[in-house]
């Protein structure tokens, strides 16, 4: 009930409305410009906090998502903590916006602003690029993806797919979820990749808020990895010489792609590697907490 009230409050007070998305760059006092940005970003972050809670509470067989993605297409993801703390007014990509769409929107807004100023140089609009995006935005994307994976899993998983086709087939929901998961992992900046060095840095050398978000991102990605990868591995494959397709119905009869002859072995290795790396991260956090 409380999350419903919080979401309703945020919507009534238009926390999902981006004022800057419909206005040209401001020429007002820099301090006033900064204060307006901080206020709007605070409202956005308040709504995104509701979104995070909504996605967490929706996990499970009977979970229901109160906030629908279709209502978020015009809402910016949170900016980086550095820009928020300093009050640096930046614009970010919209929720679910691709790199191509983001670049196109930036170009269109720049052309519109030039026309509004009669060709004269307008006030600068600052944009966050992919490598500048904040950790909170990446956590939101990872959590929304896991909510989709959870829904697919509880709706039957591979048993909800067309019979006989493999998980490498673009027609499957599995393929779409797996590709999205790989994209989220690959788009993480170097300092957020799940490595032993990054884990050490986040545990011992960075602020605790950054450490928690780093851990949460990879905990959620690990859950998505486990949900997806285990779906197509044999349930009791202990006596098998190597990983293969599921042994229980529905069976996969579609041939493995010619360019991926070791598909099943690679999938099992990737799953175990990621679980191993996350286990190392978890152990380091446990050791740090015990000190």
From TrEMBL:
<keyword id="KW-0805">Transcription regulation</keyword>
<dbReference type="GO" id="GO:0005634">
    <property type="term" value="C:nucleus"/>
</dbReference>
<dbReference type="GO" id="GO:0008270">
    <property type="term" value="F:zinc ion binding"/>
</dbReference>
<dbReference type="InterPro" id="IPR007219">
    <property type="entry name" value="XnlR_reg_dom"/>
</dbReference>
<protein>
    <recommendedName>
        <fullName>Xylanolytic transcriptional activator regulatory domain-containing protein</fullName>
    </recommendedName>
</protein>
<dbReference type="Pfam" id="PF04082">
    <property type="entry name" value="Fungal_trans"/>
</dbReference>
<feature type="domain" description="Xylanolytic transcriptional activator regulatory">
    <location>
        <begin position="35"/>
        <end position="86"/>
    </location>
</feature>
<keyword id="KW-0479">Metal-binding</keyword>
<dbReference type="GO" id="GO:0006351">
    <property type="term" value="P:DNA-templated transcription"/>
</dbReference>
<keyword id="KW-0539">Nucleus</keyword>
<dbReference type="InterPro" id="IPR050815">
    <property type="entry name" value="TF_fung"/>
</dbReference>
<dbReference type="GO" id="GO:0003677">
    <property type="term" value="F:DNA binding"/>
</dbReference>
<keyword id="KW-0804">Transcription</keyword>
<dbReference type="GO" id="GO:0000981">
    <property type="term" value="F:DNA-binding transcription factor activity, RNA polymerase II-specific"/>
</dbReference>
């Amino acid at each position: 009930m409380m999350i419903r009230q919080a979401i309703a409050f945020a919507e009534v007070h238009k926390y999902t409305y981006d004022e800057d998305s419909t206005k040209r760059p401001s020429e007002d006092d820099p301090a006033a410009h900064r204060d307006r940005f901080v206020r709007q970003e605070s409202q956005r972050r308040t709504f995104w906090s509701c979104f995070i809670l909504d996605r967490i509470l929706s996990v499970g067989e009977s979970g229901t998502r109160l906030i629908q993605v279709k209502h978020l297409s015009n809402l910016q993801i949170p900016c980086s903590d550095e820009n928020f703390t300093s009050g640096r007014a930046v614009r970010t990509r919209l929720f679910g916006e691709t790199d191509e769409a983001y670049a196109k929107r930036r170009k269109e807004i720049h052309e519109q602003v030039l026309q509004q100023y009669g060709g004269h140089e307008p006030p600068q609009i600052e944009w966050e690029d992919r490598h500048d995006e904040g950790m909170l935005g990446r956590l939101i994307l990872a959590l929304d993806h896991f909510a989709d994976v959870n829904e697919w899993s509880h709706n039957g998983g591979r048993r909800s797919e067309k019979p006989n086709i493999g998980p490498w087939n673009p027609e499957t929901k599995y393929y779409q979820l797996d590709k999205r998961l790989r994209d989220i992992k690959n788009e993480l900046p170097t300092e957020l990749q799940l490595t032993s060095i990054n884990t050490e840095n986040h545990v011992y050398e960075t602020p605790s808020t950054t450490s928690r978000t780093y851990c949460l991102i990879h905990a959620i990605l690990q859950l998505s990895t486990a949900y997806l990868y285990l779906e197509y591995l044999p349930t009791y494959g202990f006596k098998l010489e190597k990983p293969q397709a599921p042994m229980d119905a529905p069976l996969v009869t579609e041939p493995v792609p010619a360019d991926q002859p070791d598909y099943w072995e690679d999938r099992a290795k990737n799953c175990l590697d990621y679980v191993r790396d996350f286990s190392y991260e978890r152990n380091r956090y446990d050791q740090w907490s015990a000190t």
